[in-house]
Design a protein that fits this description.
Blueprint lengths: L2 H8 L5 H12 L6 H25 L1 H4 L1 H22 L14 H24 L6 H19 L2 H14 L9 H4 L6 H23 L7 H19 L5 H25 L2 H22 L9 H30 L2
């Protein structure tokens, strides 16, 4: 018997009868496979959509463009038909399908829609040279599906599409390698502005009670986009530029420090500390880059291990304090 139930009984939150029922239920050793089954369904959706992409790529000359587009459109229509038929309609608060499989059917339909629009633009260019529209249209469809069907997975696709529309690539593997923040100041400013807009939308959504459980997703994207854009510009040769982005990173750190406690989100708190630590070290290096430390080199060699060990200890202490405060 877990100590939590015993504490509830001692504090009078549950009766002895309820305690006995919980004890009997625990003794059955029943465990849920809900998370494992959902993960397998998610892998099935990813495998299915990836398989369609491979099928198109390998048989594009034999199947034909019209046939491929028609097949995609039929599958998309069938998926959305079942989703709309079984949905509870749009609601401002958190909702869910009666059957969890339909949530992944929405995800599959949304991914296939992105594939359909991208393939259509690549082959027939219905948007002409306005390639941004080919990104914006599936992004709008994704936002609609995310809010109408209350689907967080689709929301991440929508935010990624929005970032791509303003010239960013926010997938984890290419964020640092493909986004040339250093040489493109406009891209850096766009990244910061996008992050701020995501924060403002989260604040507005909470004010009108619109899908408030989406807030953590918006804030996570905002934290990564603003922090990486700022850190990338801390190495800029222009003094005003790197000082400006140092202030942006400081403001971002302060805001996400407060909001992580408000949302009780350990993920925001951990990444906020990591970005702040990296930015602080770069900032200190820029301040003392013209100072000659040749006479103090031996002292620095001795102090650096202490500094890094102290940083690790401080990091662990901060995480423990965070967990203690949010669970109090």
């Amino acid at each position: 018997m877990k100590k939590s139930e015993e504490d509830l009984l001692e504090r009078g939150f549950i009766t002895q009868n309820q305690f006995d029922e919980i004890k009997i239920y625990r003794s059955l050793n029943i465990f849920s496979l809900n998370a494992e089954l959902k993960f397998l369904i998610y892998l099935s959706v990813v495998a299915f959509t990836s398989g369609i992409g491979v099928l198109i790529y390998e048989n594009i000359d034999t199947i034909g463009h019209i046939a491929i587009l028609s097949l995609l459109l039929i599958v998309i229509a069938v998926c959305f038909y079942y989703c709309f038929k079984n949905s509870k309609g749009f609601q401002k608060n958190e909702t869910a399908f009666d059957h969890p499989v339909l949530e992944y059917l929405v995800l599959a339909a949304n991914i296939l829609t992105c594939i359909f629009i991208g393939y259509l633009q690549f082959q027939y260019e219905p948007f002409g040279n306005h390639y941004g529209l080919a990104t914006l249209v599936p992004t709008l469809v994704s936002f609609f599906c995310a809010y109408y069907f209350d689907n967080k997975s689709v929301l991440t696709i929508a935010i990624t599409g929005l970032a791509a529309y303003v010239g960013l690539s926010v997938t984890p593997q290419t964020l640092l390698s493909n986004n040339d923040f250093y040489s493109s100041q406009s891209l850096s400013y766009s990244a910061v502005m996008l992050g701020v807009l995501l924060i403002l939308w989260t604040i507005y959504s909470r004010r009108i009670s619109l899908k408030t459980h989406f807030g953590l997703i918006f804030l996570t994207f905002a934290l990564h986009i603003i922090s990486i854009a700022s850190i990338s510009n801390l190495t800029n040769y222009d003094v005003l530029t790197w000082m400006l982005f140092a202030l942006v990173l400081a403001g971002s750190t302060f805001y996400f420090y407060k909001i992580s406690y408000e949302y009780k989100a350990i993920s925001l708190y951990v990444f906020m500390i990591i970005y702040a630590y990296i930015g602080l070290n770069i900032f200190l290096f820029r301040l003392f880059e013209d100072v000659d430390f040749s006479d103090l080199w031996e002292l620095l060699v001795l102090l650096l291990p202490i500094y890094f060990i102290g940083s690790i200890v401080m990091f662990i202490k901060l995480i423990k304090n965070f967990n203690k405060k949010v669970t109090a």
